[in-house]
Amino acid sequence: MSESPKPVKKVPIHLQSAQNRVYIRNGEVVNHDKSFKADVYIEDGIIKFVGPASEITIPGGVRTIDASGKMIMPGGIDPHTSMQRPVGDTVAVDDFYRGTKAAVAGGTTMIIDCVLPKKHESLVEAYDKWRTWADPKVCCDYGLHVGITWWSKSVSDETAILCKELGVNSFKMYMSHKGAYMLNDAELLDVFERIRSLNGVAMVHAENGDIIAKNTNRLLAEGIRGPEGHELSRQEEVEAEAVQRACTLAHQMKTPLYVVSITSKSSAEILGRARRSGFCVFGETLARCIGLSLSGVRKSERIYYITSPPIRMSPETPRQLMKSLAYDDLQVTGSDNCSFNKNQKEIGSNDFTKIPNGANGAEDRMSLVWEKGVHQGLLDPCRFVAVTSTNAAKIFNVYPQKGRIAVGSDADIVIWNPQATRTISKDTHHHASDYNIFEGMTVHGVPEFVLVRGRVCAENGVVRVAEGFGRFIPMSVRPPFVYDIIEGKVQSSEEPHEEYQNGSMAKKLAELDIQIPAHEPISAMLAGNLPMPAEGSICSTPSVRGRVDGKRDMQESSFSISEELDTVGVRSCIKVKNPPGGKSSGFW
Length: 588
Prior knowledge:
Structural class: alpha/beta
Number of helices: 18
Radius of gyration: 23 Å
Distance between the termini: 46 Å
């Protein structure tokens, strides 16, 4: 077995100074489960103190940052990137330097990229190649998933080496890309079984490859060769069918499943039903899916937006996906950052099958989630932290080293200005691509300071990073957040809302706008003009329930499964462990 390459570090003088010690004062610490006023002291890349200023004496030679009116949050974790990815005869223009620099600029302090071996290529050799590409270039910490693009005894043996010796705990399979990466159902069952035996996490790209191949051949035969053919070949139900099938296959093998790149309401609903039926499944959507729909893109420009699964046409889809994040049907947001220049995309202008799939997103992910989620009243700041950082850290077993503001955690920190705005543009972004799919969009929520392991790497829009400053983070097997569900210690959805228990998901999603009241301005909350949760209090999130002053109790619902027969007024819900008729082993 080849040894993994040693990181190459090129740390300039400006990153070797007194930035070893940083004191952040007067801010609002926001974790996934609570929010409280506190100061934060950092030394040698580790958080050493979180609490009131009266309880700490700051030594000399410390850089002090005033975070008055700002939020102190864990740095973002992007669990889905494709930096420097070879695609056909071309390569994504964001390499591990430009891609991680863009990520840091947007508030992300760790990425998890995916090794994608060619068919019949050794998984360990592919892993070593990715380490050789990444270690000299990364500006922030990173981990690696490994793709399983073919199956044999040698591949099975290498999965054990990756888990036990090389810091990998997650493996990604494709149900699409027939003839290239796709595994059939029998192979998926074998892979899931193997991953379960290693206490790993299975990941799938869920689209039905057989249907896509059939549709593609038909469309080309009919003379449909432009970019419009891409989505026509893989409509929403093609994704939804594969999501349902993946959930069933993984459940039969008692394997935890993480479904990447959910792009449609129907797929998110399937995942939600599976979770409420006790399946150990997690869902990820992407910045591009909650940030825009193709309905607002000129037909002549759509070639530059081609991704798989595709960005959907319906203008309602982004909000529907954000609702799914709010209700915990989906748990994570990624970027799938795989950016190209326009001339690379235009290779497929006369044949949609030749268009390199991918787009930017690493830099704008966190601001888009804030804009579409928190600013529009669908998420609170704690849930924002959960879906942009903490949930990914827990699923891939780097929590609480990452994904939390706490003593002993890595000082990956974002000082977030919730009221500031910025306008996204190719002229100001840090990606290598010559266009940006979010061009001209104005977003609320700006990272004013970004600290990577205690180093100030972005400050008021100025990004100062160093190639090779990031390090590889091994991800151990058996993440407790995942395997406690598999082993029955907790349920995948411990605190279902009453609307879930009453069994009318579709109706409840339709009513979300009136169930979530308009948020008071965040600035008023930070300034102390509104009640803030006291230190140690619980934020109102799906996974950690708590009452927020001034907000409607979600238990006070007038909804009933027998609405047409009801003559009584508002009732509190009756919490039950099993649905009417008894618990089912399925989720249909």
